[in-house]
Amino acid sequence: MFLFGEYRARLDGKRRFGMPSALLALLPEGARTDFVLQRASDPCLWLYPLPIWRAELEALYRRINPFSPEERNFLRLYQAGAQPVSLDSDARLLLPKPLCDYAGIQTDIVLLGMKDRIEIWAEPQYTAWKAENETNLTAWMQKFLGQSLQ
Question: Where are the beta strands (DSSP E) in 11-104?
Fold first, then answer.
């Protein structure tokens, strides 16, 4: 599964937004309604289809040493920031207030397809991030794709 693209949405008064149909169409049939919303290390949220979240946790638990206090602490914080969410009958998703607060989300949001997850950004933070990083795109394409674009 490869999610991609940039989509804009607006939260209603109950912190719900309509999931863009073009983004939903990129998800496999059995992964279009149940998700896990997680704090990301950037000032945004990660939205995982539930099967992907489960697979990621299983892989994480295979790598983590349960006898290491640091690794246990990481697992606690990582999982404490996760919340199950589901689309309603109108394909809307409710963003929990604590996660909105974490990401600075108020009304306008940007959703980014990022391979197996969706990033959800507060529009002002995303706009600032994009302005700061956009000038690097050509150099990054050359570096990471291994092709000269000149």
Answer: 16-18, 34-39, 44-49, 83-86, 92-94
Q: What is the pLDDT along the chain (150 residues), one digit of tens a residue?
A: 899 999 999 999 999 999 999 999 999 988 999 999 999 989 999 999 999 999 999 999 999 998 999 999 999 999 998 999 999 999 999 999 999 999 999 999 999 999 999 999 999 999 999 999 999 998 888 888 886 555
Q: Does the CA dihedral 95-113-52-146 come out positive or negative?
A: negative
DSSP class of residue 82? Answer: -
Exposed / middle / buried, residue 110 (Cβ in 10 Å: 0-12, 13-18, 19+): buried
Which homologous superfamily is 6-122 in?
Transcriptional regulator MraZ domain (3.40.1550.20)
**Short-list 50, 57, 45, CA closest to 27:** 50
Query: What's the predicted TM-score (pTM) here?
Result: 0.91
Cβ neighbours for 60, distance < 8 A, ≥ 6 positions apart: 75, 78
57 burial (CB, 10 Å; 0-12 / 13-18 / 19+) is middle
